[in-house]
Design a protein that fits this description.
The protein is an alpha+beta fold. It has 6 helices and 8 strands.
Length: 252
């Protein structure tokens, strides 16, 4: 019986080894020659394609501002929709074409958009045009401040701080020291973020206007044109001696 048991174990062991050897000798396919195609519903494909397209397309409204001093490209902020839509409509309607930058102050800003400026005679006082248009309610955002290059709405002294429906300014400003910014914080009761401090110290701007005038866009190309316009010769009312006209269009 013991010999029979040993013989059976040896037989089983030999069978296992032979099976393993035969399995090991089988060739392993080097590549997959065919793949089962998985059908995707058209609705799913369309949804994926639309998602990809939406991620690639920049839907920000941009404005091309052309002057004799050069071209400025601006983007309008989505966080200030009332000002964005109003400005875009005026641009699309060619409202600004041939109007003047009627007030420029070096180290501060350049202002335009007065409809009276289109046919103004040299030396005429400008800046009161557009008063018959409905004001735009102020849209003040804590994250939007008067760094160099921002587009903001002019306004009169109305207590609601509502904006002019057409007049605007682009900030040139100047750089400020830590001490100056700290003084502004004390006098205005407003704390500057690290980002704001860095921008005012390096890029420059007009911090004294923060939260008093609505900022609704910024220059993304042509910053040097602001400096050129701000540096032109002007009269006692800060109107350029030579007309600085503008033309605007919406661009992609």
């Amino acid at each position: 019986m013991k010999k029979l048991s040993t013989l059976l174990c040896s037989t089983v062991l030999m069978f296992a080894l032979n099976t393993t050897a035969q399995t090991a000798k089988k060739p392993v396919p080097k590549k997959i020659t065919s793949v089962k195609t998985v059908k995707v519903k058209k609705s799913v494909k369309k949804k994926v394609q639309n998602t990809v397209t939406d991620n690639l397309v920049d839907r920000t409204i941009k404005v091309k501002l052309t002057t004799d001093s050069g071209i400025i490209i601006m983007k309008l902020y989505d966080s200030t929709p009332l000002h964005r839509d109003n400005f875009a409509k005026l641009v699309n309607d060619k409202f600004y074409d041939s109007l003047l930058f009627h007030r420029v102050i070096q180290g501060f800003m350049i202002q335009g958009g007065d409809p009276v400026s289109r046919n103004a005679v040299p030396g005429a006082m400008l800046g009161s045009g557009g008063g018959n248009m409905t004001r735009i309610p102020g849209e003040f955002r804590k994250t939007l401040f008067h760094k160099k290059g921002v587009l903001a709405a002019a306004r009169d002294g109305n207590p609601e701080k509502a904006s002019s429906a057409c007049q605007f300014y682009i900030v040139q400003g100047r750089t400020y020291s830590e001490q100056e910014l700290s003084s502004f914080e004390l006098s205005r009761g407003r704390k500057y973020s690290p980002q704001e401090r860095l921008a005012y110290k390096t890029l420059g701007g007009t911090p004294m206007l923060d939260q008093d005038y609505t900022v609704f866009g910024e220059v993304i190309s042509g910053m040097e044109v602001i400096d050129k316009i701000a540096a032109v010769q002007k009269d006692q009312n800060n109107r350029p001696l030579g007309d600085v006209r503008m033309k605007m269009e919406l661009v992609k």
